User: Fold these one by one.
Assistant:
Number 1:
Amino acid sequence: MKYIIFNWKSYLNLKETISLSKIISNLPSSKKFKLVSSPNNFFNLAIKSRFPKNTLATQNIDFHGSGANTGSMNINHLIENKIKYSILGHSEVRSNFGDSDTIVKIKLDLCLSHNIIPIVCVGETKDVYKSKKTKIFLKSQINKIFDKSTSYNEVILAYEPLWSIGTGLTPKIDEIEEISSYLSKILKNYSFKKINILYGGSVNLTNISDILNLRNVNGVLVGSASTKSDFIKYFK
Ligand code: 13P
């Protein structure tokens, strides 16, 4: 079973979100894929009734709890509304809202204590990739986010090279496998009930089969392609 996570970012309005949700809800159930949809945070509740249990994600959470926190995305509301997943540390959240690895770590701990499955995004810049320092970079990023003395429940780690997001560029297929296998190796130094490593960045109909065939890749996190009905229909 491979995870397929649709990150609709802020691409779709409510009508478009509902129409895509209808296509997803009409797909036959599959043993090969576990589909999780992450609509813009405003729309989770509007589409929830169309989705089976535990198949929706928020695109972020906040670490401010209940109370006088204007603008907060309170994790308690995910629990109250039975939303099981949250993307953490997406590169656009890091660049638009200043989330650092330290903040991602705080949010990760919050997910653990609230039984939310985090989809933690990591990835290197083009410069790091070009200077062949991807592994060193990712090791340090993981070290800042995860704690060796914590026992984590299920965690999804999405390897999303920043230079690949929204550009049409991807690492070579054997590089994706090599990095995923490396991530799987270094994550053995930490304790997880379940850990899945996903690839994200310019996944589309042309490259998805090759990526999903990789042994060490447990799924994909897809942005713009996942807003297209043709792409969704791949999973039927
Ligand atoms: P694209 O698939 O549009 O490159 O975006 C990837 C991404 O950011 C998924 O979280």
Number 2:
Amino acid sequence: MSAVVIDGFAVAASVRARVAESVTALKSRSITPCLAVVLVGEDPASVSYVSGKEKALAEVGMTDRSIRLPATASESELLALVATLNGDPSVHGILVQLPLPKHINEARVIMAIDPAKDVDGFHPVNVGNMVIDRPCFLPCTPHGVLVLLREAGIVTSGAHAVIVGRSNIVGKPLSILLARRDCNCTVTLCHTGTRDLPSISRQADILIAALGKPRVITADMIRPGAAVIDVGVNRVEDATAKKGFRLVGDVDFVPACEVASFITPVPRGVGPMTIAMLMENTLLAAKRASGLE
Ligand code: GUN
């Protein structure tokens, strides 16, 4: 068997095109959605993510309010900046790129963001509303995974979804979303405390790898015919690559293709979807702020 490789890049481009049309319509009412992207320090992966977000903002016609702070910025400086952005009516969404430097308490910063501008969906108000099916901002990566499953025509109702990784950003929210009535999956959430992971991952109709370790999900851990979604983005050294590294997922891709029915590649799989869903959330934030949604 050779798996269908899901083109996340193409699906993301079509989401962005739809967002761009709505942005044009909003602009005719003198509303231009604006996202403030805050980056503290110069972590190379974060710099690269943030530049991807900036590029997408330009493409869909939104205003990009990028703010860079040095790695030495204090927590109170960052909190003051968040308070300013909360109070600025021209800013519809606020994204503070994670991880933050060790001396800054991430939870405190996330909780300082106005939930109505929390386009990451990380604030406890949005997380809580997600859990009880109330209006909220859905976290971008899990939401992107749901859209990819839908666009690929993968049946979720009644399927056993096994998620590997319990992060606040991906694994935990995805377990909630896949179990909701609209997806209707039976969900198993695996993590570092899971005994005999391969015996559980092999029960998955839909296997989601979100543990952040290069190529640890091997072909023998995948049930023949399963759909495999690889959320991992890992830099591995590669002397032949221009930058000295290349990106690989959490799944050992080539052998996995021989076992799975569907699979997402890295890069050009889930990654572009995260940014596309961020554009969608920023659009939604601008509409809600203007009383349009
Ligand atoms: N770091 C890795 N992924 C994300 C994300 O989706 N949002 C933010 N703010 N930081 C991240």
